[in-house]
Request: fold
Amino acid sequence: MTHFADSLTDRITRTSPVCVGLDPALDKLPEGIDHTPAGVAAFCRGIIDATADTACCIKPQLAYFELLGWEGMKVFWEVCDYAKTKNLLVIADGKRNDIGSTCDAYAEAYLGKGKPVDALTVNPYLGFDGIAPFIERGEKNGKGIFVLVKTSNASSGELQDLPIGDEVVHEHVAELTTAWGKTCLGPESGFSSVGAVVGATYPEELKYLRSLMPHPIFLIPGYGAQGGTAKDVAGGFHANGTGAIVNASRSIIYASKGRDWKEAAEKAAKDMAEELSKEIRK
Amino acid sequence: MTHFADSLTDRITRTSPVCVGLDPALDKLPEGIDHTPAGVAAFCRGIIDATADTACCIKPQLAYFELLGWEGMKVFWEVCDYAKTKNLLVIADGKRNDIGSTCDAYAEAYLGKGKPVDALTVNPYLGFDGIAPFIERGEKNGKGIFVLVKTSNASSGELQDLPIGDEVVHEHVAELTTAWGKTCLGPESGFSSVGAVVGATYPEELKYLRSLMPHPIFLIPGYGAQGGTAKDVAGGFHANGTGAIVNASRSIIYASKGRDWKEAAEKAAKDMAEELSKEIRK
Reply:
């Protein structure tokens, strides 16, 4: 069994730090795709085919699958299975959080042995009780988590930037995240299976948070449609070009609404990988 | 269409503030129930039958249904539908959180028109961007949310009790929660459709938070198996015995592991309603 941080780092090195966000909203599906769960499945498989050679991982956003009821969840698991056959790592974006045996249930649901999910995003508001079951299950099964540290939305500061002494809340969460994962380092990469979500819309913070969190792998959302550029995210990487993945959803999966959507997604992912490679590994 | 806070208050008055938490873990199911999704469905229907005359609402915990894959989510929706036929309100305990169109997707998934869910628990770490779509959808469809303010677990203080100036983080979240719901008051009850989750293991805080949050309805977990008593939760209620619901999961649904589990659940719910009625409405 390979450690999650080692698998991801290896995959980043072989492909790119591009993470493709699968946010399949029915009303945004391209021409020729049915507005049904089966259509969503076909669309996601098409995006996977188009980007599997370029991206290190996909990040299906659970909300869009849950919106389709249990049929949507069936598609979610089918899509994850399909991505694994293409050697993509799968990060389930669910921002789950709970405590005790309920947290265990979420951990087993997504990070259980043999599940086609490699990592799950989690929310830290409940403290370590809401994180430990995910870490334990992850360590056992070669899987990981990404803790929300600083998100990319406008109102993220309402809680995350509240001043506590010399620092702000999200900096404290950054330190907690580092501490939570300090015994979970991959033997090859040296990175932790406890990663951090750090928004790309705050490039200066990204650099500072990198210094607070040397071991967590960063999952950086907000690229492309949300306004982040390759320059903005560069500070999230280590000097050797590892330690971070950058997510783009809409700018890749909806690169074209026409019948050329697969080709457009492939090109968008390749362009993004190239843009990133110019700014990192320097 | 009735306002969520009015529906819930009316139901509390007619029955009790007891909220029955449905946490159907396969390994805890009573004798005679199959350890399958169909078994979980039968168990949940049995608990609903046993408690529908006593409880104001049920709170299915999504983690346990997600753990069973898409078949589990099918059961989740069936159970919610069934609860509605028994006049119970349904609070989906998912602690969901996201931003923008993804948050919209969660809001529509659970608080959409015609969905058999009346309210959803949500996590405030992302700020108002992660709350507004739920409020908007709720106001449109007579549904509500419960924002995690102070949770009942041991490590909840790691973030929630961090000092910010004269107060701590969860007090600030309490003020935000009140503000977020200030235009969402039920015309009959005067309560807000933006409720608050406040753990029962901190009775003094509960009283203080009541003063900070006059309008949100409190969802108080931690009763019974988690250690909270009727005395502990009394401070969460308004003087007229409304404004709060109290959740118990294990102490009701697993009151007996034998073939008398339905009768035991019925009795546990009735006992709890009686204990609460002694401490509140004074």
In short: The two ends of chain A are 32 Å apart (CA to CA). Chain A has a mean pLDDT of 95. Chain A is about 45% helix and 15% strand.
